[in-house]
């Protein structure tokens, strides 16, 4: 995004100097997807041009939105490594966005692939016993080799979220030649607090290795399987449905391609070999969806009137509508009694679970604090909510509090938005995140 | 174009030399490509025709090329139509694949450097399009295959890939479509691009009220070409 | 090993490739390239040289900002003893090293070197190292590494001239006849053998990293003038320990220092091609450096200081909670009374045809290195791995600890020299 701004400024600055250049029209042109930036012909736009020459979402909202297309990928057999299970997936190299720090303009960086040759490598890491996807930045290290020879330097995998994949690790990996590649992934011990059935596990690093064929067939498979949404939906609030299914039938925005018959998903010209629906194959791979709000016990904290985004929205899923939001993230916040296994001694436990508004993807690597006030007086100032993965409640941020009671107001301060890279459709959400004001009912 | 349609024939190789304005597009344009994709659409995408009338449509392909600035050197386009309503009488290869790739860096240049690239990577404007066309009027399909010769850096841009001539049947229904059932562009590296296709709708008229205004072109398209030329020229002059 | 293709490389690039390859034929090729260079000769009076082997700073030049400019070319020659040390072997080592000092000026124009010894070397002696010497066996410190330096000694050769480091190495091992035109009388061959697997080479200096973009892991986007691969200056005068600070003051090894060598590969592709300059500055220095644009393109705007105020160092924890924390900022937390503990003499490498860094650090004791390295890693901080300094871009794979004795004890010292 930052990048585009630079280009645009340059473009605009140059425009005045060479008006006479029109004389050169008549030969095949370069992409002009920024053509509206010179202010010339924006008005001819949307209703007449059937499809933009280049598929791109203009000016996406500061919220979760529908991207231009559904990604297509090859899913490999899951691999077990120590306590971890890992499912590799491969697509073609594509842009994503890095987030560093506050989520301000400078901290968000669009990353385009350096070259077209290669793959977008992804893997989901989870615990086979609980089926909990492990959604935090562990610092997984990747080494690539071709026919037993190392290719390039070792690299770290970015933690990422995507609408279809949920939380995963990934990066674009440039590859020069076709062949059988082996990827070695070393996953270090999990440094985050684990509780419940996950407590005491993931303390050893583990190495998983998998192979894939990078050839013409692969390239065809992952590009042919791409499905474009109707362009009227591009950039609209909503999210693609998760790739592996079951849990999200309630997602009205899930299959965005409406009744436009032009997407070549079924049949002719493709045959069966691509099988991009492919649901059976994915059945064993969990999607990183958090439990719905009602699955969390305890006293759910309620939004204080008008303090949150939720009241002004009507485009969320049925559940997300009721939850307080910040930066388009939905927050489940609940107060567990001292008999909860998560609470220390006689304390209460505040559990805060931020998630994407449609697919309930956990928002990891945030920094959250809580403050409690009673009748205008501070009861607890600035309690750090520790990032935790629980065998039942999955990723959340929590802390034990000695003194909380009905009527107290609880402010959740977001010190940093989720420091995870984003696929298209998530890169403008969960960045500027104002505090959330809640009260104990 | 005037010869009578035959149920099945294969057009001879068509060779078109494009881009006489050598050098216009030498300078790099940094674009932040939305997707590594090629779009296929008809110009016009909606038109009206009378029963018995012969009409032509351009099949226009657009691509930014690959992320490393590589262009495309192969196109394949499969069309389908209702052979009771339409007859494809001719397919001419267009110049799209012969377009210059001026070393455009679609990478988005992670350093924000808009002046990188190399202005010496022109192919001399001498690329040509070799192609074949297979019209199966019985089943109502057209298969078009094209290859850029020589491949060199491949083609980047927006231009006509093929011009389709259609004859509307006397007893055609009120609307019919010319559908792109499958289309694919392949980068010079061999990696295909994702494709986004848009069909054309032909409204069969009532014998007199043919629409004479802008409906018969893609309005944005002409503007696109003009702007594209400006963009190219700007960078060209900007580097002097 | 085969020599690099002369026709395919620039002269400077070619010379560096020859250092990396090593051997007599590389030296011959290098010498023929370097005919026009006059190398200043050294001294007949060993006593005129500093007692500390690591006293390099006064023999080096400084840039306009007062930062010491390290020699451009480096070789780390791993050595293994042929037999247990004897007085005769000691004399031979000393004689050979004095020949080097006679042939080459003690400077970046001539040759700077140190000879350090591993804990494994000292294990063979009955006595143990004195309490003043903190030299444990190497351990992983952070994460894990594949290999430890378990050979006996490491000769660090450094010069601005590639043919000097090559000639010195080859001459000491019988593959050259002359040191800078002076006939070689004593070599190290009967005392040491080279451990080729652990031979390491490298370079440091403005523009040198950018000359390695022919290596697959080195993107074209390495900044042209950057002295290090990661694109920024390092070794700011203010963030380097003084030679005094890293010197062991008391005991039989007074005048010595300890040396740690951490070898790592660097993931430059994501660093340079994916992260923005803003993100690189935030991760390398601090988020404030990025917000306020304190560094300039390659750190040149910082002058002689890494720009870390006390407030910035103290803010490390809260910056981490803000999502990103700088490498320099984290490391500076280990300073004592504002003084850095490490004297870095690190340099980049393309050993193994992969971009990397040999992080060579001098400090009074290895424990100080460990403390700084742990602070650099920042496991205690809340920042996610990818934004916790540069830790997700570097992959340490080898470590070694050394004692670099004072010059008077540099030739095969006993663990307890007083008793020897």
From TrEMBL, chain A:
Pfam families: DUF7350. InterPro entries: DUF7350, TAT_signal, Tp34-type_sf. Residues 262-283 have a biased composition (Basic and acidic residues). Residues 322-438 form the DUF7350 domain. Residues 33-49, 252-261 have a biased composition (Acidic residues). Residues 33-60, 238-326 are annotated as: Disordered. It comes from the Archaea. This is DUF7350 domain-containing protein. The lineage of its organism: Archaea, Methanobacteriati, Methanobacteriota, Stenosarchaea group, Halobacteria.
From TrEMBL, chain B:
GO terms for molecular function: carbohydrate binding. It comes from Natronorubrum texcoconense. Residues 97-135 are annotated as: Disordered. Gene3D superfamilies: 2.60.40.680. It comes from the Archaea. This is PGF-CTERM protein. InterPro entries: CBM2/CBM3_carb-bd_dom_sf, PGF_CTERM. One of its GO terms (cellular component) is S-layer. The lineage of its organism: Archaea, Methanobacteriati, Methanobacteriota, Stenosarchaea group, Halobacteria.
Automatic annotation (TrEMBL), chain C:
Residues 33-48 have a biased composition (Acidic residues). It comes from Natronorubrum texcoconense. This is Deferrochelatase/peroxidase EfeB. Residues 32-56 are annotated as: Disordered. InterPro entries: Dimeric_a/b-barrel, DUF7405. Pfam families: DUF7405.
